[in-house]
Design brief:
The protein has eight helices and nine strands. The protein is of the alpha/beta class. The protein has a single domain, classed as Glycerol-3-phosphate (1)-acyltransferase (3-Layer(aba) Sandwich), CATH 3.40.1130.10. The protein has a seven-stranded mixed sheet with strand order 3-9-8-4-7-5-6, with helices on both faces. The protein has a two-stranded antiparallel ribbon with strand order 1-2. β5, α4 and β6 form a beta-alpha-beta unit. The termini are far apart. The mean pLDDT is 86.
Length: 223
């Protein structure tokens, strides 16, 4: 199924993202997510003192669960859009649903100029954050996956700081107790336009590892 630039067949995505209607939809989704997750989990959130909710950032997080986007997005204290892989847009109903929640389609193999323009335009909006999962897919082990360069590339493209975010899920010893979710937002940092994106991405992954319970991939741990 070809990717559509319309939501529900008539809403122009490029005009919708970062707009007042998008902010309304984000606020509704955020409220529902916070009600659900605080009712069913123990939530712990830590923010770096240098994290400014009124600034635009590219936020790079680890990816453990399908719930990561709504959890992190609703806890950032500011509106956020997130990069979603093209496979999530194959079902039209689901594609429209996540697009209304400011999910941005990106073909990682062939990122088009339209997607780049959309991302840059969102970053120009006051206090909107862009959430990217640095591993590119969910990790199903106690180790983080390999760092992809997408987050660093987008931070360079948008000329904004990169913010590492760690999310951890902890099971309580008592099987009847609620699962704990911990989200830690690290220090924003810039990097030079001449820095190698692979090096920047691996450094970001190391910062994320320090913020969550998961180890670096084995070869990243090697000296």
């Amino acid at each position: 199924m070809a990717h559509s630039d319309k939501i529900l067949g008539f809403i122009d995505k490029n005009k919708f993202y970062g707009s007042a209607p998008a902010l309304i939809m984000f606020s509704i989704a955020k409220f529902l997510c916070l009600v659900y997750f605080y009712a069913t989990h123990d939530i712990e959130v830590e923010y770096s003192k240098n994290f400014d909710p009124n600034k635009s950032y590219v936020c790079a997080a680890n990816h453990k669960s399908m719930f990561d986007p709504p959890i992190i997005g609703s806890l950032l204290n500011s509106p956020s859009a997130f990069i979603a892989k093209k496979e999530l847009f194959t079902n039209k109903f689901f594609a429209d649903l996540i697009s209304l929640c400011s999910a941005i389609y990106l073909d990682r193999d062939k990122p088009g100029s339209s997607s780049k323009k959309t991302i840059i335009n969102i970053q120009k909006k006051d206090n909107w954050k862009l959430l990217v999962f640095i591993e590119g897919t969910r990790s199903k082990t106690d180790e983080l996956g390999k760092a992809q360069t997408g987050a660093a590339f987008l931070a360079r493209l948008c000329k904004t700081p990169l913010v590492p975010i760690g999310i951890s899920y902890r099971n309580k010893k008592n099987p009847n107790s609620r699962k704990k979710i911990i989200v830690k937002v690290g220090d924003p940092y810039y990097f030079s336009k001449t820095d190698d994106l692979n090096d920047v991405s691996e450094e970001c992954l190391k910062r994320i590892s320090q913020l969550c319970d998961y180890k670096l991939p084995s070869k990243v741990n090697e000296p």
